Amino acid sequence: MNETKQDGAGDVVEALCAVVPSERVTAAADIGEDLLHDEAIGIFGVRPLAMVAPQSSAEVAAVLAWANGTGTPVTVRGAGTGLSGGAVPEAEGILLSTDAMADIIEIDTDNSMAVVGPGVRLDQLDEALAPLGLVYPVFPGEYSSSLGGNVATNAGGMRAVKYGVTRHHVLGVEAVLASGEVITTGGKFVKATTGYDLTQLILGSEGTLAVVTQATLKLSPRLPHAATVLAPFAGMEEVTEAVPKVVASGADPMILEYIDMITLAAMGTTLGLDLGIPQEVKDTALAYLVVVLESAHEDRLEADTQGVAEQLAELGAIDVYVLPPKAATELIDAREKAFWVAKANNANEIIDVVVPRSAMPEFMNRISELASETASWIAGCGHAGDGNVHMSVFQGDPEVLADVMKRLYAIGMELGGAISGEHGLGTAKRGYFLELEDPAKIELMRRIKVAFDPNDILNPGKVL
Amino acid sequence: MNETKQDGAGDVVEALCAVVPSERVTAAADIGEDLLHDEAIGIFGVRPLAMVAPQSSAEVAAVLAWANGTGTPVTVRGAGTGLSGGAVPEAEGILLSTDAMADIIEIDTDNSMAVVGPGVRLDQLDEALAPLGLVYPVFPGEYSSSLGGNVATNAGGMRAVKYGVTRHHVLGVEAVLASGEVITTGGKFVKATTGYDLTQLILGSEGTLAVVTQATLKLSPRLPHAATVLAPFAGMEEVTEAVPKVVASGADPMILEYIDMITLAAMGTTLGLDLGIPQEVKDTALAYLVVVLESAHEDRLEADTQGVAEQLAELGAIDVYVLPPKAATELIDAREKAFWVAKANNANEIIDVVVPRSAMPEFMNRISELASETASWIAGCGHAGDGNVHMSVFQGDPEVLADVMKRLYAIGMELGGAISGEHGLGTAKRGYFLELEDPAKIELMRRIKVAFDPNDILNPGKVL
């Protein structure tokens, strides 16, 4: 078996070197361990037959045409920061790295747009945009993630309450189909009703429909002033009730997050975060709401911050803190790192279920019941403004864990939600998705997959 | 032939009465003339075999299951305000009216969302939302249009520069597939990466992929204060140069429109609009920029309006007028009615090409050249903030007209744009689309169409 595989791998390297310059190709044995998996909890790396790092859409096209002809699976890898196993290759396939397509091709200030290669990192783009007074306002937790990965998973993050998610900022892509055909969709415009929206269909498809080789991104003015308000509440219900009122105030919050007391404490222990909250407040507050406002005008920001602070006090906050800039930055950084806190504490699973934001207390209550019933431990934080709940699940027994996960997802769907708000299905949630989702939709998605990729070469075994 | 058709029609009425209550069904001869066409210029009405007005998704499902089994074309009709012939039925098919599904099912203030039937009109929804301080911020020119039609065409309008288009506000749909299967996509959440985004794929597909029977809409806070600034400029270049600067100012304009001098004059003549612009300004201004700002705070609005007015003066505006509320309303109303002005003046065609907004002057220049070269007359207005150009084409010779249209679309695409920004392809632009678009994309769209509708019963002859 092993020998056969080695032969297969040798053949594949040779074949790839015949369609792209040989320096793009890495033999199986030379691929670094780190490239064999993403950051999903409990994931195992898989060594593919070879890795290729094309430099252009033409090279991607050559690779896919060959793979399609030979039925070789192709898994695309960006920065590898995914949390669902979407970038884990097949043992009998190849890994296609976007690292060599990491140029910011254009920043177009007239149209407030950027055109980027898929390997460009969020922090790299942000650094280029800051001096121009522009921002690509999608900030998922991991700024070292690649734009290609963001497109593949429709990355979200904390600012979605104001700015929406990746889907709302990608106006077009250049993509290579499984056949090797290169298409461009959309463009530097927000409006279009010119046939089916292929951009939106490819977006969030986790590398199963096409390989994105360029993306056109909509940019926003970079507002220079921001303020952060932290409000401890007695419980989740109070936080959830406050959210629509803050939204309706017109203060246009950029971030609305909740953090439960356990997670805040863990952030303190693991990350050294100390916000100076008095012990008597900590003792009574079960849930914290974080509101971040931004503005072009410092005076307006001050007035709005004051207004939101007063509003939260009226809505029953135990106390309200307008955080000094340093503490605010630390809190948001710590919140972004919540996943790593969970990982450091040996969480067995993480979820990113999305529910209607008003359904969050019920979701949390039912999760609590489920936790006690199954002797599991579930805690977390999440995007209060958009109903995206991030929880860590601690349950050592794999069989019980699988049951807990399935029931968690089922509860989310029952409350009108979806299994994944932003991480994607990959392999980690695929089984639950196939089991819980409407079969008519699964079958329709499978027919769409066939329309793009009849030989199932693009990231097989993911999503569907 | 006629007799055969009549027999067919009788059979169809009988068949429909067997699957839905007979009061939902209208025989061919009894369908009002107005229901046989939409508002596209030069369109001819077509009388279908019958019309059915189902009251529920279950009834739509019964109709589609029957149609799919018999291979009968089904064309959906909302308010019939479309401009591309998308709602014109087939002579050998049936018309499915959404008029009996016109309930606002829910306005959910906790989640800032509304759930509506496809027959709900924009003005009906707006009337229900206003007292709640909420707005569905997509305002295409025609407020009597139906939400179902808005979803089918991904309706846009003037506020897209701030709020985006229908695509950015529809979070989920209930839809019936050609097979009669009822699916629900998305939900009351902004984020999701849970399989392919069927919502976005159905959106803008002009009734060719599924019949939408419910839509979940994202609402925004209704800002109470608005101000309108009108600035005459020497030409289109100056208008276009001013636009990104106004956007970058952080004043967050809701509307950024340009109107050419000919169209403004025609609005005066046809609609009686008089803005009191001095003759010497009219004599030198070839293009006008309209900026509308809105705010939750009157004082901030005043400051921003002042700021934008000063900015426009610095950017070379011949003069700047902050319009009194009545004149502002009249101007925006007149701008919304620009299509009717074109129709009243016997335009032979209208276009709604979208180009990158910075490419508008070049687009206009090349259109001018095309107009002189072909002895045509082309004038218009458009959404300066998003590059969506609305022009009327006057050219009496049908053969020359077809050539002019094709070249117009080709120029738009060459500049990185698309054939239709918001009206859709329907039948009016289908031929140009099929001729000018990348065949690889056309074929991919056709495979997607087959994935949804293998027997081609849903609005055949439209889009693809």
From TrEMBL, chains A, B:
Enzyme Commission (EC) number: 1.-.-.-
Required cofactor(s): FAD
Organism listed in the record: Candidatus Neomicrothrix parvicella RN1
Record has Oxidoreductase as a keyword: yes
Protein name from the UniProt record: Putative enzyme
Keyword list, A-Z: FAD, Flavoprotein, Oxidoreductase
Domain of life the protein comes from: Bacteria
Stored InterPro entries: FAD-bd_oxidored_4_C, FAD-bd_PCMH, FAD-bd_PCMH-like_sf, FAD-bd_PCMH_sub2, FAD-linked_Oxase-like_C, FAD-linked_OxidoTrans_Type4, Oxid_FAD_bind_N, Vanillyl_alc_oxidase_C-sub2
Residue ranges occupied by any FAD-binding PCMH-type domain in the UniProt entry: 44-222
An example molecular function term from Gene Ontology annotations: oxidoreductase activity
Enzyme class per UniProt: oxidoreductase
